Amino acid sequence: xxxxxxxxxxxxxxxxxxxxxxxxxxxxxxxxxxxxxxxxxxxxxxxxxxxxxxxxxxxxxxxxxxxxxxxxxxxxxxxxxxxxxxxxxxxxxxxxxxxxxxxxxxxxxxxxxxxxxxxxxxxxxxxxxxxxxxxxxxxxxxxxxxxxxxxxxxxxxxxxxxxxxxxxxxxxxxxxxxxxxxxxxxxxxxxxxxxxxxxxxxxxxxxxxxxxxxxxxxxxxxxxxxxxxxxxxxxxxxxxxxxxxxxxxxxxxxxxxxxxxxxxxxxxxxxxxxxxxxxxxxxxxxxxxxxxxxxxxxxxxxxxxxxxxxxxxxxxxxxxxxxxxxxxxxxxxxxxxxxxxxxxxxxxxxxxxxxxxxxxxxxxxxxxxxxxxxxxxxxxxxxxxxxxxxxxxxxxxxxxxxxxxxxxxxxxxxxxxxxxxxxxxxxxxxxxxxxxxxxxxxxxxxxxxxxxxxxxxxxxxxxxxxxxxxxxxxxxxxxxxxxxxxxxxxxxxxxxxxxxxxxxxxxxxxxxxxxxxxxxxxxxxxxxxxxxxxxxxxxxxxxxxxxxxxxxxxxxxxxxxxxxxxxxxxxxxxxxxxxxxxxxxxxxxxxxxxxxxxxxxxxxxxxxxxxxxxxxxxxxxxxxxxxxxxxxxxxxxxxxxxxxxxxxxxxxxxxxxxxxxxxxxxxxxxxxxxxxxxxxxxxxxxxxxxxxxxxxxxxxxxxxxxxxxxxxxxxxxxxxxxxxxxxxxxxxxxxxxxxxxxxxxxxxxxxxxxxxxxxxxxxxxxxxxxxxxxxxxxxxxxxxxxxxxxxxxxxxxxxxxxxxxxxxxxxxxxxxxxxxxxxxxxxxxxxxxxxxxxxxxxxxxxxxxxxxxxxxxxxxxxxxxxxxxxxxxxxxxxxxxxxxxxxxxxxxxxxxxxxxxxxxxxxxxxxxxxxxxxxxxxxxxxxxxxxxxxxxxxxxxxxxxxxxxxxxxxxxxxxxxxxxxxxxxxxxxxxxxxxxxxxxxxxxxxxxxxxxxxxxxxxxxxxxxxxxxxxxxxxxxxxxxxxxxxxxxxxxxxxxxxxxxxxxxxxxxxxxxxxxxxxxxxxxxxxxxxxxxxxxxxxxxxxxxxxxxxxxxxxxxxxxxxxxxxxxxxxxxxxxxxxxxxxxxxxxxxxxxxxxxxxxxxxxxxxxxxxxxxxxxxxxxxxxxxxxxx
Length: 1174
Fold this sequence. Notes:
Elements: H1 38-92, H2 95-109, H3 117-130, H4 134-137, H5 145-163, H6 174-189, H7 198-212, H8 219-230, H9 236-250, H10 257-261, H11 263-267, H12 272-281, H13 290-308, H14 317-329, H15 331-337, H16 347-359, H17 362-367, H18 374-388, H19 395-412, H20 417-425, E1 428-431, E2 434-437, H21 438-447, H22 450-457, H23 462-467, H24 483-504, H25 507-514, H26 526-529, H27 534-553, H28 555-563, H29 572-576, H30 585-593, H31 605-625, H32 645-672, H33 686-712, H34 715-722, H35 729-747, H36 754-766, H37 774-781, E3 784-788, H38 792-800, E4 812-816, H39 830-845, E5 851-853, E6 859-861, H40 865-875, H41 883-909, H42 919-926, H43 937-943, H44 945-955, E7 969-973, E8 983-987, H45 1002-1016, H46 1019-1032, H47 1035-1038, H48 1043-1051, H49 1059-1064, E9 1067-1069, H50 1082-1093, H51 1096-1107, E10 1125-1128, E11 1138-1140, E12 1145-1148, H52 1154-1167
Parallel strand pairs: 3-4, 9-10, 10-12
Antiparallel strand pairs: 1-2, 5-6, 7-8, 11-12
Helix pairs in contact: 1-2, 2-3, 3-6, 5-6, 5-7, 6-8, 7-9, 8-9, 9-12, 12-14, 13-14, 14-19, 16-33, 18-20, 19-20, 19-21, 19-24, 20-24, 21-24, 22-27, 24-31, 27-31, 30-33, 32-33, 36-37, 39-41, 40-41, 41-46, 42-48, 43-44, 43-45, 50-52, 51-52
């Protein structure tokens, strides 16, 4: 078949356009230099056809242009004739007669873009106003023509407003007022004429309110705004459209100065319920640009102003629902604007927050806080009780709405969160069974939800429940108010309130609820009436641990699901971006990586997880301090592969470390591009610094994204760091030891043994470990020191301060006695142990400046140390903030930091110390990673028993607290020990000296006293100590343990001494070495028999005599370093046993009878004699 066959049998026409003659009509009309194939011929034919078609199209286009132009010329001529006729009418005809002829001409020819048409419009408008629109009333002109007149008037006002610059207000001109008056007259005659352009109508009036200023008097403008809202005899659709436009096109405008100063006049013409219904029926689209977010805030502020103008009226539920809708959609920005920059946060984050605070308009920032006033919250709760409390069928369903609104307030206004929670805590909710405390009301509502029941009963279903989140759950529109959201809002508010109440509840009130039969007679306190029973607590804790486990273990899956949803304006990046631009691709990339799983409107993933974890930890801390739940209640070993758990955790830690190190260079490169000295965001420099703020935001978000990435490769680590109690304690200790061992291997080139490490150091710097290379000698010399007895702590601080985390490496100590003589002995590890225990003993027991003890003889940092140091400097007449002053203060904090390093070194080397720390202080160790220690009144018991009892008396005081004349201040002692007592008064809250303590706010007062004593007063000392401790022991390792477990980690196990375990791991020396027959020496057998016969207290005395601590190591005596040793002490049976505590060595004479051995041994350990440091 021919390749050019097309299926058409008709021969194609051959057209010659080349100008050449040919005798054969079937040959090519174009003669190329070479032979032309058939396909080439076809191609040329197609090109020729296209050329002809193009010519035809050009001809048709030219005809259309000519036709259009002729029509345009005719129309323009006709319009010109009509304009001329209109002008003649206004030159000759009587005003009363000309309007009927002039108006149709104007409607036919008017063009808002032509400046010469505007006078004609003004002529007609003036005539219409003078005649009171009689031509329409008398039906000379049909009323439908008012529709077009209204459009013309609005278009003209829009163009006139846009044509003037921002410094030249347009509305005060008489012509503009004339047009506005005409619109007002149209509204009276035919409101429907405005309906097609109602949004534009309100925008025009909004521009007028902006430009005429707050001091102007313009009742006509007020009437123009409210006229569509008050229109009668109009379809319902018109009224709905009017309210919709009023809300979306007028109230969203910025700086409506005239409206804001005369809001009461406007409010009289606004049906509030219709306005709120309009917002709820057609809510605004979720903001995705700077302009839309700003519009949201202005709409919210104007709604609040309208409601405030009707204070005599009770707020309707529709108002609260509308507020909840708008607040939830703007929660991120309101929260940032009303949050004080976190002093613990990064400077970049503080700069971003500062920029947002500066951009919040003054009017908006003045109106929003009115939502959290005392009266406003109280009115809200009263209204809820009145409207919903008596409805037994819906009382708990309605609780979800109240929960959502209060949750959003707490989230939006974090600095006022405690005040909001306090108002809710004091409220009673009416139910069909009578009033209930708010906590019990929301507990009942929570426990009835299907989500709570499912998660509490079956932990494996938690992830499935979270996956059921409705599509677009991050949106805040009313159509997404599903059962899922309603139930979660109820649960979250209960948790918010419960966490707050746990802070205020002492153990007596808490435990009284566990056993209602043991409650005191009479009317219980509100705290006791808010307590949960044992069964309720079991159910709640199961829910919390199942949910928390999933939120940490499956966080990556949940966040990846959220990252696939469309990006909304859920972060400050675009709010800081220039209003004239959208986010570029880089911005979108960064923002998409930080997408969050929003549990419900306004509550992001991290805030949700933090709240759930906080509630769980607060109950767990109380249980760990005073157990009340069944043993093993918190464990979740069935959810973890415990067989390979330790290995899996170690591998995850390795992968995280590698990922972190691989990104350090990238972070350094990005940080080099940012000037740390760049001025902060200021209002005056808003445009100049905006790009820098966006870049800083990106840097902060990149760090957050990196943390999420690290968490995604370490789910087991996330569990250990945030809810370690679900893993058995013994497993966590194994993991801790593994972390320490791997850290030693990394730092010491794989050589954990001190002597092999020293050889490796010598070899690293020279290649020959036996040559005296100066560099290697200097490295080792920094880890060696001569320490004078009696000055152990000060010498250690001087010698080893510069090592920083180098203190992790092996050190060598040479003791010098009080006469300057070096003590005999080689430090093979035992002298180092004695050095470390001696440093702690001297610092804790001999120097009360740094640490003090409570009534249980437990140690914690001296909270008055800073004030006392300042007092002593003032007594020495040293100027405050002088170089000497600052150096002295820094030296005090260095001592705390160095002591933290020493404690860390003991834990790092597995050396137990006989020091007991206060429980609240150990809680700060466990919270050091996130710095999220939450003080409570119960922790005061460990700090100051007298203060604790005083707070309890105040809490239970039956009379009026005002009679005690207390305020929100506290007195801190600043005088030195032994000197006359001198105190200073400090505020517990801003302006605390002006806030009296009342019966209502006394729980807050007690909470703030606890916070001051436990956190604020000793913040500098504690941070210095924890900084030193964290330099040796990674804070994430410490977060795996609670306060009692940390004490066991530092000082050993407090359980009964296991003699057989000690016997199995004892090393013998001298004649006591076990021979080939495997038999122990007779004296050794007698020793173990005697030890078995002793009670546990006496065994502890023996253990302390030999090892310097009365407690066994965790995981048994196999972990004791150096190992427990027994060596013969000669054949003189009259001698007492002696010990070398630095080597954990007991020198035992060869006693022949058990009675003699028992007598000598107990005498030695109880008298404290016989220590031998050789």
